[in-house]
């Protein structure tokens, strides 16, 4: 989508640091993919409807492994097509035109080849060929001529031609299956909702399909299915039996499910799960090990709201997708297993942020914490799949919830979803919504939570002073991590819960208490991502 120059004039939480800058707005892709009867070769034809942002040529990335054989503009031959180097290995299709900003243009690119990545062709454990797209973060252009950036969301229609013995899943709703010559079939799917190119997927394999029946629905029921290799169908039916309840829970919490249906698909994805809109892909190796648990199902399902329907406008704001999905999955665990399960999961997420013990038993700090969540200097997109954007991002939401209260927090989630559904957002947009709903100035919180590295490290010293206990709260984290504000920080002083507005390097408070406390516990209810050490002053 075309983004206003205003973004560049706002604060860092509104900054778009990606080097990819979209000029024209792709609003719909009609994709034809024909897979070969044997081997990995594909033939593709992609028609794109553009709304032009200027009179500049349309530039579409497509990997050099794909040979372009024809390009049409508005249905006519274009002899002015050039192919020039794109990066170190990739190519682009460069399409001049004679139209102006605001005009609509249709391009059609026909090509063929063997994808080096992005479309994975393998054999399953039974020796059958499988084709599965695996686009995240920007691998779609390795097999599709698309503007491969999350900000340029578009509708997508698939026509996939395959041997007759393969089933096909793709984004959206199955429109029809046509019988073709030579024992082949064409499967057509349509999704009339704009999604990011990383979500443009299809899968073709020998599959068993199981309908997932919800126990009840307070909102319109979302048709859901489990697609698996035939030998895994019984396990898939059992593992995904919880999926309808998860969709129902998030629908009530956030808002209506954004798509017409949802499929859970066993695939060759390199990730444990990939949240493609309407068709979540799960790694096949999870199935024989029976490791498709409710947490991964909840995480990937939550992405249908945050990541797919509401998409980060810039890769560096990935926490708006991964942090949200991680937190909503923890909320699901608390919903079904009790608050203790939620708190245990959040403590596990905190431990992942802090670090872990090495093989020698020595604790090693997590090096990712040396960078902020919104790190505009990052250039390795795969490196963004880190503890910063997952568990630390989830903790940003947990802290925010405790600052504004449950009512404002969940009202804010719902408004954020309604306002940016089927569109894009930056961290500043989420901040604006939460300020609007809570009536609080939250700029300080979002700045420290997203733009500072690390987390608070506290040393709390206490001493008896007559009929009181004096507390001295020191922030001792590395200077480069900055100092935090911790409003309403809870401290249990011998069974008496007190709240302290801690800020700066040192905060002092006197607590009326006639006896020396047996223990002093900082943040006993796990409201902040912090580490604390308690000492009795000499």
What does this structure look like?
The chain has helices at residues 233-239, 243-253, 294-302, 319-337, 339-354, 388-404, 406-420, 427-438, 443-451, and strands at 25-35, 42-51, 58-62, 66-73, 76-77, 82-86, 90-95, 104-113, 119-123, 129-133, 154-163, 167-170, 173-180, 184-195, 202-205, 208-212, 224-228, 262-267, 273-274, 279-283, 310-312, 355-357, 363-365, 423-425, 457-464, 468-475, 485-493, 496-503, 506-512, 520-522, 531-536. It is α+β, with helices and mostly antiparallel strands. The protein folds into 4 domains: 21-205, Sandwich (Immunoglobulin-like), CATH 2.60.40.1730; 208-312, Zincin-like, CATH 3.30.2010; 315-451, Neutral Protease, domain 2; 457-536, Sandwich (Immunoglobulin-like), CATH 2.60.40.1840. The strands form 8 sheets. The chain has an 8-stranded mixed β-sheet with strand order 5-4-8-2-1-11-14-13, with no helix packed on it. A 5-stranded mixed β-sheet has the order 16-17-18-20-19. A hairpin with a 3-residue loop joins strand 6 (82-86) and strand 7. The radius of gyration is 26 Å and the shape is elongated. Mean pLDDT is 92; it is low at 1-9 and 82-89.
What's the short version?
With 538 residues, this protein is an alpha+beta fold. Helices cover 21% and strands 35% of the residues. It has 4 domains: 21-205, tricorn interacting facor f3 domain (Immunoglobulin-like, Sandwich); 208-312, Zincin-like (2-Layer Sandwich); 315-451, Neutral Protease Domain 2 (Neutral Protease, domain 2, Orthogonal Bundle); 457-536, Immunoglobulin-like, CATH 2.60.40.1840.
């Amino acid at each position: 989508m075309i983004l206003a120059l205003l973004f560049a004039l706002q604060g860092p939480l509104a900054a778009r640091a990606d080097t990819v800058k979209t000029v024209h707005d792709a609003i719909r892709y009609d994709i034809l993919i024909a897979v070969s009867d044997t081997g990995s070769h594909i033939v593709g034809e992609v028609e794109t409807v553009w709304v032009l942002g200027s009179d500049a040529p349309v530039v579409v990335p497509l990997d050099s492994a794909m040979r372009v054989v024809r390009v049409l503009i508005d249905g006519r031959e274009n002899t002015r097509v050039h192919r020039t180097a794109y990066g170190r290995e990739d190519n682009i299709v460069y399409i001049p035109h004679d139209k102006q900003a605001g005009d609509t243009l249709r391009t059609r690119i026909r090509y063929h080849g063997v994808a080096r990545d992005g479309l994975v062709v393998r054999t399953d454990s039974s020796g059958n060929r499988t084709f599965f797209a695996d686009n995240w973060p920007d691998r779609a252009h390795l097999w599709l001529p698309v503007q491969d950036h999350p900000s340029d969301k578009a509708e997508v229609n698939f026509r996939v031609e395959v041997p007759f013995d393969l089933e096909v899943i793709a984004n959206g709703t199955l429109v029809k299956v046509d019988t073709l010559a030579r024992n082949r079939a064409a499967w057509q799917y349509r999704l009339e909702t704009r999604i990011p190119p990383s979500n443009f997927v299809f899968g073709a394999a020998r599959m068993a399909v199981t309908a997932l029946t919800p126990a009840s629905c307070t909102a319109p029921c979302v048709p859901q299915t489990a697609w698996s290799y035939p030998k895994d169908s019984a396990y898939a039916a059992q593992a995904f039996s919880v999926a309808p309840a998860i969709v129902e829970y998030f629908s009530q919490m956030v808002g209506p499910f954004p798509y017409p249906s949802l499929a859970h698909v066993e695939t060759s994805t390199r990730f444990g799960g990939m949240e493609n809109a309407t068709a979540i892909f799960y790694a096949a190796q999870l199935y024989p090990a029976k490791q498709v648990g409710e947490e991964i199902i909840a995480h990937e399902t939550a992405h249908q709201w945050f990541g797919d329907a509401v998409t980060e406008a810039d890769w560096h704001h990935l926490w708006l997708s991964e942090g949200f999905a991680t937190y909503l999955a923890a909320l699901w665990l608390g919903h079904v297993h009790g608050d203790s399960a939620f708190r245990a999961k959040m403590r596990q997420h905190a431990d992942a942020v802090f670090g872990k013990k090495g093989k020698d038993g020595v604790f090693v700090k997590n090096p990712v914490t040396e960078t902020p969540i919104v790190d505009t200097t990052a250039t390795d997109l795969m490196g963004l799949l880190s503890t910063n954007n997952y568990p630390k991002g989830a903790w940003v939401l947990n802290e925010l919830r405790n600052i504004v209260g449950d009512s404002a927090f969940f009202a804010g989630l719902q408004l954020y979803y309604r306002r940016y559904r089927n569109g894009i957002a930056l961290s500043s947009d989420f901040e604006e919504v939460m300020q609007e709903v809570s009536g609080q100035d939250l700029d300080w919180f979002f700045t420290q939570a997203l733009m500072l590295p690390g987390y608070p490290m506290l040393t709390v010293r206490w001493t008896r002073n007559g009929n009181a206990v004096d507390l001295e709260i020191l922030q001792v984290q590395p200077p480069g991590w900055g100092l935090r504000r911790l409003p309403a920080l809870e401290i249990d002083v011998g069974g008496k819960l007190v709240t302290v507005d801690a800020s700066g390097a040192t905060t002092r408070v006197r607590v009326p208490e006639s006896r020396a406390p047996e223990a002093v516990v900082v943040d006993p209810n796990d409201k902040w991502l912090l580490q604390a050490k308690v000492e009795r002053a000499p």
